[in-house]
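Bench notes, afternoon.
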Amino acid sequence: MPLSGLRPIRAFGAALAFGALAFLGAQPALAQFSGAQRGEIETIIREYLVKNPEVLRDALIELDRRAKADEDVQRRQAVDKLDAQIFNSRHQVVIGNPKGPISLVEFYDYNCGFCKRALGDLSALIKGNPDLRVILKEFPVLSQGSVEAAHVAAAVKMQLPPDKFWAFHQKLMSSRGPVGKAQALAVAKEFNVDMTRLAKDMDSTEVKAGIEENMHLGEALGINGTPSYVVGKEIVVGAVGLEALQTRIGNIRKCGKGTCD
């Protein structure tokens, strides 16, 4: 049988599988049938699924697709709701073109190996996209050392201009081995920050509020790992690579969204 003939059959099978799952799980609806009718319907459904188990696979794939689509909608709604905190927080630092029409936000952890490997991607994106506005947000989820390093970095950004902070960020993110307070302070010292002020700012209400804001944003946006990005209005979880991020940036120029229809 040609593939064109198989598609309607498999579509019917998937529909039947959805109906079967709904039917077998909807006890109140079963009350309208007699015991004999329920038994006959259940037998038909089970026999079909046993003979055609691939329809269950198709149904599960479709359920997963729908769940991801629903999740994407919820995330976009969350981005719209939290727009000011995501793109214009007083706690953030902006690198690249501060007036760029396209925004990319990165949530990162200084102990994240994937973040370290993705550092070159971010650098390449900034160099290759003069209209790109990049926002860096500490998201220390991996260890206590990550929390300590995030506090140091948040305090450093209170002293350094964006380009200098970007250099600090690259140096600290490129550190080998575990990163904590000592490592972050050592890098900060290389950039001639006021270490006395830094020690005070690290534990300040301002620094704590900024990191807490990032953590709350991550939770609201469904971000559970680093690196994660917000590109335009689209959330991208994981180190997806330079090409995938560049494609989304190009799509925003083309159709105003990270993924064009």
